[in-house]
Amino acid sequence: xxxxxxxxxxxxxxxxxxxxxxxxxxxxxxxxxxxxxxxxxxxxxxxxxxxxxxxxxxxxxxxxxxxxxxxxxxxxxxxxxxxxxxxxxxxxxxxxxxxxxxxxxxxxxxxxxxxxxxxxxxxxxxxxxxxxxxxxxxxxxxxxxxxxxxxxxxxxxxxxxxxxxxxxxxx
Length: 171
Hints:
mainly alpha, two-stranded parallel sheet, 5 helices, elongated
């Protein structure tokens, strides 16, 4: 996400927040669509409440590439949510991670209710994604804030060059 540091006005701050809320809502809708839409299912309701168990199984599967895709997909899916909770909503890192974990827990409970598998590992991976997004946002905010505090040179005022004293010819 590119950020332009220019003149900040109340209207631009309001527009940025409104855009952030819209992007957050869109991210949540995409996550809900990906996780709650009908897909491949064993047809039996199950729940894994042992942290790390399914991650270990996925990494030691006959095709560990599929497991890695699932693991990194679960993390990546929540990075935008963590990022936007910090930048758009103004939450801190801990609240962004908690928000991501609560959303993920809600999704897993819904999946269980509709007859699919619920997995604590998905909650942990999703919360990790929210953490990575929140940290990236906090770093971005710090960099932008530092850049905004720097004095600016305007185009209408050319920079003054340091003047060197004229050499006096020796006699």
